[in-house]
Amino acid sequence: MLDLGISKMALIGAVALIVIGPEKLPRVARTVGTLLGKAQRYVADVKAEVNRAMDLDELKKMKESVEEAGREVEKGIYSTKTDFEKSWSEATAGLEGPGHSADGTPTPAWEPPPPEYRRPNKNWRLKRGATPQWYKARQGVRRQVQSGAARVARYRPRKSS
């Protein structure tokens, strides 16, 4: 890589000042700075893309190893299942009786009938009673029945003497 020290940078700045001139030097320096910034961002993007590709390859390898382990476990379970079925069929080979069919599977002796349909009891009085008394009092719901005479006596304006 380039080894730029302070002395070399000062020499480059002096040559640029002479060649370009003091009027155009700030604009050229700004342009060079933006180009260097774009180059650095491009290099950073390329590095990030390479790192993502490497991570993706590692993930693919890990996925393949997990799938292979899953296949091995599945094969082991299948072989265990077939071994168990063989030993079960050998153990139950002589049990063909009234409770077993010809292939060795047990048959139920009695099957219960399906349950009868019962209509659910919906008691609207019970639902009305579920409302708290304080809520009824706040909302003005009548809790007790009054006769017409009692209602008139209750709401009759009082005579002032």
* Rg measurement, Å: 47 Å
Percent range of helical residues: 55-70%
Q: pLDDT below 50 for ≥5 consecutive residues: which ranges?
A: none
- Estimate the strand proportion: under 5%
Number of strands: 0
Quaternary status: single chain
Instruction: Note the total helix count.
Output: 5
Amino- and carboxy-terminal Cα gap:
115 Å
Q: Quick check: average pLDDT?
A: 82
What order do the helices and strands follow? HHHHH
Overall geometry = flat
Q: Which structural category do the helix and sheet elements fall into? A: mainly alpha
Major beta-sheet overview: none
Task: Give a written overview of the molecule.
This protein is mostly helical and 161 residues long. The chain has a domain at 6-84. Helix content is 64%, strand content 0%. The protein has helices at 6-20, 25-91, 124-129, 133-139, 148-155. The model has no long low-confidence stretch (mean pLDDT 82).
Fold blueprint:
Layout: H1 6-20, H2 25-91, H3 124-129, H4 133-139, H5 148-155
What is the compact description of this entry?
With 161 residues, the chain is mainly alpha-helical.
